[in-house]
Fold this protein.
Amino acid sequence: MKKTLKIVVLAKQVPDTRNVGKDAMKADGTVNRAALPAIFNPEDLNALEQALTLKDMCPGSTVEVLTMGPPRAADVIRDAMFRGADGGVLLTDRKFAGSDTLATSYALSRAIRKMNPDIIVAGRQAIDGDTAQVGPQVAEKLGLPQVTYAEQILSVDEGQIVIKRRLERGVEVVSCPLPMVMTVNASAPECRPQHAKLVMKYKHAKTISEIQALQEDYYTSLRDARPYLNITEWSVADVDADDQQLGLTGSPTKVKKIENVVFQAKEAKKLTGSDADINELMQELIASHTLG
Amino acid sequence: MRTEMNNIFVYCEIENGAVADVSLELLTKGRELADKLGCKLEALAIGHGLQGIEKKLAAYGADTVWVADAADLAPFRTLPHAAIICGIFKEEKPQIALFGATSVGRDLAPRVSSALHSGLTADCTSLEIGDHTENKTGKEYKDLLYQIRPAFGGNIIATIINPDHRPQMATVREGVMKMQEAAKPGAGEVKTVDYKKYLKDTDLAVKIIEREMEERKVNIKGASVVVAGGYGMGSKENFGMLYELASVLGGEVGASRAAVDAGFAEHARQVGQTGVTVRPKLYIACGISGQIQHTAGMDQSAMIISINNDEAAPINKIADYAIVGDVMTVIPKMIKSYKQNSK
Ligand SMILES: Cc1cc2nc3c(=O)[nH]c(=O)nc-3n(C[C@H](O)[C@H](O)[C@H](O)COP(=O)(O)OP(=O)(O)OC[C@H]3O[C@@H](n4cnc5c(N)ncnc54)[C@H](O)[C@@H]3O)c2cc1C
């Protein structure tokens, strides 16, 4: 009989920086942030899949999503619930604004202490920052071992997990005692899709702020009747965090300067993929000694 | 003010006794910064079988080489390496600490920065020394490390500083900085680390059961023709035709990050801001959209050809020739045509 696990997934809502291009760039070459949709950070979806896989391996386990962000980041938790997560916590407070990775890791670690999981699963990195720092920093703050770049969980039993890691130049299989933190690579399996039944079940899942904003008694009574529709919302005070370690004050790194990257256009000669066009091009390259 | 004139430390990655290129690149940069600051450059060598390693590191400018040599310390594991580095840093109080933005460095540096509560900037593309005046308080800082990196999907370039915390930590990807032996080699004075005093039992709790490293030495930096594939190539199998084209043209295969992330090619082939910068005579971009992070690594190529089925792809803005078509049909035609015409 396998142990049941308490699993927490760290997930972030991010602007979709991968689709910066056409309409997301303003005429002056700067980013039009408003034009970027907010999405579930891609590698956090890989992380969620690993967590759900663990739950499949150890029935009775629970998967909760922890996200820090503005109120609308609750979308990430709902999305995760539609895919099989049991619930989640939104860590939201103006005091978090301006946090660098270290202050973020501190805040997350405060919330995780309160959730007390066996395994914390995070995506390797978020596409808006690409730092890959939060996973290891959270692990350090919690005093837990870390396994980064996880691609596959090979086994888990009482007190130990065996994981295959994908490194730049190879693979490694490691064992790690629980509790632990793992970060998951994009090379790990994609997340399972939303499930129609779960969408039905959780579509009214809301945080307390969302319910208050709607000012409809309907949701309050719904939530009282079905507690699983409650998305927990925590502030700085709820996780007993030290203000001095949060936001700008708690961030050792400061942004000194920002420059926009400007595209410069030049005229390309357009060719079709026809045999004649390709042939002519190759002959030109040979004649100009670009090739050969 | 806390700007103690302490030294610059570089964490050196060592695999089977060989120092990684990225570490030598960091030493090269570290030497330049140390000369500017008038401080020493110190190298950290943690691993096993490190006898004589100081010679190589000194050639790249290391004044001091800290050596922690034990079977338990190789291959790399996060916790023991982090504990040793933190122990040394607490005593030596470096002003700057540099790590490669590799699988190892990106795992290790954040752990160390968290333990020391010092700021860390990932994937810097440039490091400079400069001053800073705090807007609100008017407080002045001399000789800070400017950590310059692309941010927000690479659409902006940010300069990050750590005014009040030490060390100022940064990671840098392989191939971003120059690698050059120092004009005047460092002394390479060995300091043997009594590492056991820094380790707890639990630091060795993660066990490596199996490990398979590829011996790779792809060098796309030196190639005169680079045939690069993007996400539009569709699969690792389809990348096969790029290897064929590259070998016919006497070139190397490069890749976009989307292709690397999808597993179509290994990271050593990645071209761009966080990969390698190339300047070949000819760059053929196959199924690459041409996001700024990619073009930053290849826009100095003498000639650029793009093959893309989307005429509006941004790559066409910097291409000399834009072939609007499907890579699957165009590339075989190029191979065939070159073979016929080059005879
Ligand atoms: C901080 C940061 C650093 C980054 N560093 C790098 C870096 O160093 N290098 C890098 O490359 N990227 C980097 N990126 C990622 C970069 O933003 C892009 O996401 C990436 O370059 C896109 O790769 P791609 O062009 O292969 O994929 P896509 O953008 O998905 O483009 C695929 C292209 O293929 C075309 N296509 C599809 N099918 C076909 C077909 N059958 N025939 C012909 N054409 C086809 C499509 O029209 C499209 O233009 C970085 C991102 C960030 C945020």
Q: What stands out?
A: Chain B touches chain A through 95 residues (CB under 8 Å). Chain B has two domains: 8-204, 225-341. Residues 225-341 of chain B form a domain with the Rossmann fold fold (CATH 3.40.50.1220). Chain B is about 25% helix and 30% strand.
